[in-house]
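In this supplementary section we document a worked example of the pipeline. Step one takes a protein sequence of length 432 as its only input; no multiple sequence alignment statistics are reported here. Step two produces a three-dimensional model, which step three serialises into structure tokens for compact storage. The input and output of this example are shown verbatim.
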Amino acid sequence: MKKVLVLGVGAQGSAAAKRLDLEPNVEEVICADYDMKAVENVVSSIKKGRGVQVDAHDKDSIVAAAQGVDLILNGLPLECTKNVLDAALEVKANYQDYASTINLYDVWRNSEEGKKDNDGLADNVTSEATKEWIDSLKAQYRIYGPKFKKIGKLAIVGTGSAPGLICCATRRAVRELDTCDTIYNIVWEGAIAKRFQPFWWSPITALTDMSEEALAFENGTFVNRPAFGVPEKRQYDYMDEEITFLEHSHDEPLHYGFNADTHFKGCKNAYFKYAGAGMDFAKPLYQAGLLSHEAENYKGNEIVPFDYVLTHIPPAPKYKEEIKEIIDEGLVKDSGCMVIEAYGKKDGADTLVETHVFAPGLVESFERAGITAEMYLTGQGGFFFSKMFVNDKFDQTGLISSDMLTEDQVDTYFDYAAELGITLETKIKENK
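The serialised model returned by step three reads:
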């Protein structure tokens, strides 16, 4: 029987907590957040829950809440990741998060290994933020990995829907190739409310991604590409309109690049292409300089454009009543896609493997579980990794990202996903 600490019970953590409550191998779900209203909302809806207030900016506060737990599920903003990782090590617990952090670059650069680092992975990168991201992942793999291995525990980073579910789906697609040259991850957030609701997940996380130059893996090295640039059009057979997908800064190309030879059959190019209401909203803000993190003087007052814009964006809906209200007001659209295009060789022929992820939309997600489609896919997409933890499906120790599962673990993941109506369809085509 396992005890799980769900740290951060916002839109994603609350969905995972409710699913963990149904697992027979889970004894207790400790729901922790600074916002006790959010904690009480989740605890009141489950049977094995216990609530506690935690200030995740204080590592000791996390440690106090995590005594005796087998797994810490981190659903907090990226700025808290170091504290949660350190707390997991201190209490000797397994660790899981939804997105690997960008805030551990100092850990790497101040380490003995980091001071000697000359692997050249960032030599073609122009953005300092991207260099920090690359170094943060090195810190996770190469500094925190050995620490978790030493205590016989496993940390898995990047386990939401993207990255996480899409990483596992990409592994499924690449399985069909002998060698892989190029991977496209293509995501369209097609749930659009009549009210102003640009983001169905954390606005600060979304806008942080959108404030940066895009990251790609190209010709075997990491590069920056123009944010909101390099448009590509797609219309798959279940879509009623052609959508323009744009460059976006996201985890997947970073992970695929690091693990190209070990898990992606020698992949040389990887791109993340994104579309939806959030991108449509953020693009003009970016072009106007309103996603800048640099302080400016405005009529005698110092403001940071990014911070000011953020104060005017509604949070992601997480309570059943507010989600119902949005649906009752009416939706402009309830659609979307998540597709992997993997190009390479199969039996000597140029081949495209096209893997589509199908999942309930907003209305169906609410009917099934009282949550949004984003919560359904990300919170529950992350939950499948948690379910693997509590069912002892991992024999690894150390630290891995969600693209590094074994083939059997990938299959188990999608067995779990199918139980909740999240399925894959793969098409293998001649690449002309």
